[in-house]
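Can you give me the bound-state structure? Components:
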Amino acid sequence: MMNADREGRLLDAFVRVTNTLVADYDVVELLQTLVDAAVDLFDADSAGIILANQDGELEVVVSTSERSQLIGLMQLEAGEGPCVESYATGATVSAADPDELQRRWPLFADASDRAGYAAVHSIPLRVQDQVLGSMNLFRNTPGALTDRDAAAARALTDVATISILQQRTADHAVRAQSQLQQALDSRVAIEQAKGFIAHTHGVDLDTAFALLRRHARSHRMLLRDVAQGVTERTIVLPAVDAVQGSRLRG
Amino acid sequence: MGSVFAFPMWIGRIAIGSVGLYAGGPSALPSRSIARASALARSTAGAVLDRAVRVARPERPGEWSPDGYARREIHQAVGMIAAQTGGSTADAMLLLRAAAFASARSVRDVSIDVVRRDLDLGGQHDPGTPERNQ
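Here's the bound-state model for the whole set.
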């Protein structure tokens, strides 16, 4: 049952995602907004999005945590699991407990068990026949999403997907694939900047990412431009103390 | 021989060599020339190291495009090395490859050590201004 506060936050998430339709934005920031909102709203412990790159391989483009197990799980080399299946079929795929995971995808189940997850809910990023990737919610405890949550998560994901496909450059529509490839490419600059800040600011990678995002937001800049500015040393982020650090990550 | 100018060829803390300039009479280089010569020496050092590593250790297929997570770690390590050495990300990539060659390990394995902060490729920076003996 959704209370008024959650309805407010859900509405807020829709507003944030649709804001991207009218303002300049980068796809990475949009998708990060989506996974952060999804964890906040839908009773999940972690979330991440995989996209197909130009070679058709699935890559994690955003996640709520840098935990390597989470990232590895989503792009399991074995090519099985709900995240991959949701992309391949264009349908929502979900497994509510470890037994079901084990029965359907034994390799994925072993990896998700090691990562501490008990249930997974995967939603395709899809518009009509075109599937771009999947949005994946992970829970530490068994249990399926309520129907209402599942519908809301689907709607939020659909809106984000449509937003990506709506993005146009000044004079022509950019094909979805090149748009997404750009998002995956800007990941390179972002990961480099995370490493850079982790060293210069003495913080972990998640905090480094939070600092980048905060700067992009407060200066109304694109995340990839901030990332590039950091490694080129045209942007210097202010120092952060320990208390701030843990708040940023939280 | 009137003047000697020597420019260091550094990448990170790897000293590749030096470039010497000689003039017949006593003279000083204008600061713009010093900046240009330093930049040239630095980029030459990069090219030399790049070639040396390429010859010594041919790039393994897919080394820069392994599966997604490995790729993230490599990019993160490149950023960290750039911060450690005060250089560009292009130089950092070069240092990462050189370190992989020197330790006979994969770029990915070295990246993991860098990200875990078990390995710091920083230290001595490019000293910048050349020694002048007039």
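A couple of observations. Residues 168-173 of chain A have pLDDT under 50 and may be disordered. Chain A touches chain B through 24 residues (CB under 8 Å).
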